[in-house]
Amino acid sequence: MSTIISEGLSATTLLRFATAGSVDDGKSTLVGRLLHDSKSILSDQLEAVERASASRGQDAPDLALLTDGLRAEREQGITIDVAYRYFATPRRRFILADTPGHVQYTRNMVTGASTAELTVILVDARNGVVEQTRRHAAIAALLRVPHVVLAVNKMDLVEYREAVFAEIAEEFTAYASELGVPEVTAIPISALAGDNVVDPSANMDWYGGPTFLEHLETVPVSHDLAHCHARLPVQYVIRPQTAEHPDYRGYAGQIAAGTFHVGEAVTVLPSGRTSTISGIDLLGEPVDAAWTTQSVTVLLTDDIDISRGDLIVPTKDAPPTTQDVEATVCHVADQPLTVGHRVLIKHGTRTVKAIVKDIPSRLTLDDLSLHPHPGQLVANDIGRVKIRTAQPLPVDSYADSRRTGSFILIDPSDGTTLTAGMVGESFASPEPVKDEPDDDGWDF
């Protein structure tokens, strides 16, 4: 069964999108305006914002307060953490991640955009494309976000001039194309005044494209993971051993991608043992098939050793297992990632020991050049790494599967997340680097 929903049923489609941009570009104000003008907020929420705005001496409600919920955010007028909002229009449902703009919170943007089908990158019309704009465009490209919207905000402060918008849109689109971003839609807006957010602007009659909300409602949602490589990371083995179910052995987890069918030949990785699906339980009821995001229990015809962290895949479509992983990463921790760094790598439900064998390059955002062999990556750096794992991992290319082609590196001493990684090639792919022999005493 496909999860693609026809345009005639578009009211039930779901779009996950994230906002990003530099400091004070107006992300939270845009989100607040979107919620307010689409009538997606409750009256008591609006009253609370009006009271908070009045207490700060503001004549009009500060719509940014609808998303900036932390006390420090409200006091400083900035966004610190990712704010998730759920809303709907008659045409579509939305999950929105409003991410911070400060460089030190770039890691939060990675979190918010990692599951998004669309990323909104805001630009202040007075400032144009800045370094943080390029950084967010690079992250959107790395995360393979299918759609990017360039929202040129604060057009009211540049007298709604078409030339200003055109220059910014041209510069950003050229940069994004170098990154391999498949699609950029540029929209001139004023989040504060409401121009082109929900309603068309009377001040920019030169613009004939969709409003921001109209684009969100009509952009194709083609994330049909039911037709991707089928993958089931095992989270738990169910063995009731009761009088009613004396021999029941099920393997429970959430399907990461693809569709599984009863009677299908499957392989368990990394062991490589094979079997056949004899049954699939969904919400306590047997079904003939199950697909992406459904949490199921799979039963096999053979009694083989399977545990948490294993991956069940179709035998005809099994990924390779490897102990050598090369990936593009965004380093998110304050402590640097260095060559020789001993880490834990979490891939799906499996966590194993690993060592950073090499850091071939770091990306320079200004001109997309590669700084070879930097020796380390510091917070918010984007670069390439080579990792040797203690046990084989069944990894897909991130270009093929965002779920099973991604991983995180963890500090084994305190559990801190160090790095978010995307397996395979990217625009930051360096020249091949010859591996040096492993003489540091690690036996894997």
Word description of this protein:
With 444 residues, the chain is α+β, with helices and mostly antiparallel strands. The protein has 7 helices and 25 strands. It has helices spanning 27-37, 43-55, 71-76, 106-113, 131-142, 162-179, 212-218; strands spanning 14-21, 83-89, 92-98, 118-124, 147-153, 184-188, 232-233, 236-238, 250-254, 259-261, 265-269, 273-282, 285-287, 289-291, 295-300, 311-314, 321-331, 337-338, 342-347, 350-364, 369-372, 376-377, 382-394, 406-410, 417-423. The strands form 5 sheets. Strands 7, 8, 9, 11, 12, 13, 15 and 16 form an 8-stranded antiparallel beta sheet that branches. Strands 2-3-1-4-5-6 form a 6-stranded mixed beta sheet, with helices on both faces. Strands 17-23-20-19-24-25 form a 6-stranded antiparallel beta barrel. The radius of gyration is 24 Å and the shape is globular. The two termini are 42 Å apart.
